[in-house]
Design a protein that fits this description.
The chain is of the alpha/beta class. The chain has 2 domains: 185 residues, FAD/NAD(P)-binding domain, CATH 3.50.50.60; 153 residues, D-Amino Acid Oxidase, subunit A, domain 2 (D-Amino Acid Oxidase, Chain A, domain 2), CATH 3.30.9. Helix content is 26%, strand content 25%. The chain has 9 helices and 18 strands. Strands 1, 2, 8, 9, 10, 11, 17 and 18 form an 8-stranded mixed beta sheet that branches. Strand 17 and strand 18 form a beta hairpin. Helix 1 packs parallel to helix 5, helix 1 packs parallel to helix 8 and helix 2 packs across helix 8. The protein is globular, with a radius of gyration of 21 Å.
């Protein structure tokens, strides 16, 4: 069992050298650091703020394996396995709950699309299934089931607490010998000839052989310091919380209206979490909660779950999605730049749920092994060679206004 360190313990001097420097202390960076350290690599993780202060700071994060392409299904499914074993390895309580994910499908075309995805998911070991109206009502009595043409559900999916996951991986990495330093900003990546030789920071220089970029919404800027173009843009996403309701909510799945992107599920005892993606959100590093989104949220609630349309929203939270042009992750080792620069970023809303499997994959890429989960389709080279809309093999591409079952709507 790992034990957490006090934040002050992570603000000491930088080591003179580390075999690998991981940039970013969110779920992805912490997972990468843990898996590398467990594999015997000398790791230094650098975070510009506190751990989980960026996209991984959200109070609750969904975990699922329901996607429309094999690559994302495999990452989600493997990550579920690792989250289920998190209490043993690395050793922490992450508040994992598995009430399932319920996708509500407005039209017949949506049902047909999800039927294809469910068949593919079943072939890959995911026990998802299509549901009728009566089953939807039993799972979530708030939903106006008659307005939907159908639904898809996987009982193993659910949610957990991202901050607990980050701290669990960080403490586990430290137990295996990694060093973690917070409030350290990377200012440059130094290369000589064909090799990366050092990372420069606001606290000095660290010699290294390799860099792994896991800086979330800030990845584009950090990547540029290594001579790499990673197309990642920040978009604000907001969630709201009800107070403790007079009639305690039943246990419901993580429920998503596929048409509007509205979603809701249980939060603290007696409370619900509510969210929706605002299609008018601009590209910006804006993390201030704005109650001006509530009319959009109310409209979606009224259409999906009329009983909740007047429920009070007493507090909210805003964070950043790290979006790529095709809404799929960037995972791989850079080409065309000096030395070894690896990356895991741009997850477009599902970085937390895929973080465990991605940490394994980056560990194996660094070691020269074939990853257990195939991530070759996530290489950033897809944008350089075929334009920004090239899908991963088997992927259903989507526009910002219409997202597939792999969608980054939460």
């Amino acid at each position: 069992m790992t034990s957490a360190r006090h934040p002050a313990d992570r603000r000491g001097p930088l080591p003179a050298r580390a075999e690998v420097v991981v940039v970013g202390g969110g779920a992805l960076g912490a997972s990468v650091a843990f898996h590398l350290a467990e594999d015997g690599v000398d790791v230094l993780l650098l975070e510009a703020d506190e751990l989980a202060s960026g996209s991984s700071g959200k109070p609750i994060g969904g975990v699922r394996a329901q996607f429309s392409d094999p690559a994302n299904v495999d990452l989600g499914n493997r990550s579920l396995e690792l989250y289920e074993d998190f209490a043993n390895r690395p050793g922490a309580d992450i508040g994992l709950q598995q009430p399932g994910y319920l996708f509500l499908l407005p039209g017949a075309d949506d049902v047909a699309l999800f039927e294809e995805s469910v068949a593919m998911q079943n072939e890959r070991g995911v026990a998802s299934r299509m549901l009728g109206h009566d089953a939807v009502r039993r799972l979530n009595p708030y939903v106006d089931a008659d307005r939907y043409a159908g639904a898809a559900y996987a009982a193993r999916d659910g949610f957990a607490h991202p901050k607990a996951v980050v701290e669990g991986y960080a403490a586990g990495a430290e137990w295996h010998g990694a060093t973690i330093r917070t409030h350290v900003t990377v200012t440059d990546v130094e290369a000589r000839g064909d090799d990366v030789v050092a990372v420069w920071t606001n606290h000095g220089r660290v010699r290294t052989d390799a860099v792994v970029l896991c800086a979330g919404a800030w990845t584009r800027d950090v990547a540029a310091k290594a001579g790499l173009d990673l197309p990642v843009d920040p978009y604000r996403r907001q969630i709201g919380f009800t107070p403790r309701l007079e009639t305690a909510p039943p246990r419901i799945p993580f429920t998503i209206d596929y048409g509007s992107t509205f979603y809701f599920h249980n939060a603290e005892p007696g409370c619900l979490l509510l969210g929706i993606a605002d299609p008018a959100t601009p590209v910006a590093f804006e993390r201030t909660y704005d109650p001006g989104w509530l009319p959009l949220l109310r409209g979606a609630i009224g259409a999906c779950a009329p009983e909740l349309v007047d429920v009070p929203v007493t507090r909210g939270w805003a964070g950043l999605y790290e979006m790529t042009p095709d809404h799929n992750a960037l995972i791989g080792e850079a080409t065309g730049v000096p030395g070894r620069v690896l990356y895991a970023a741009g997850f477009s809303g599902h970085g937390f749920l895929q973080a465990p499997a991605v940490g394994e994959a980056v560990r194996d890429l660094y070691a020269g092994r074939t990853p257990r989960t195939d991530v070759s389709g996530f290489s950033a080279d897809r944008f350089a060679t075929a334009g920004p809309t090239l899908p991963i093999t088997g992927q259903t591409t989507t526009s910002p206004g219409r997202r597939g079952p792999e969608a980054n709507i939460i």
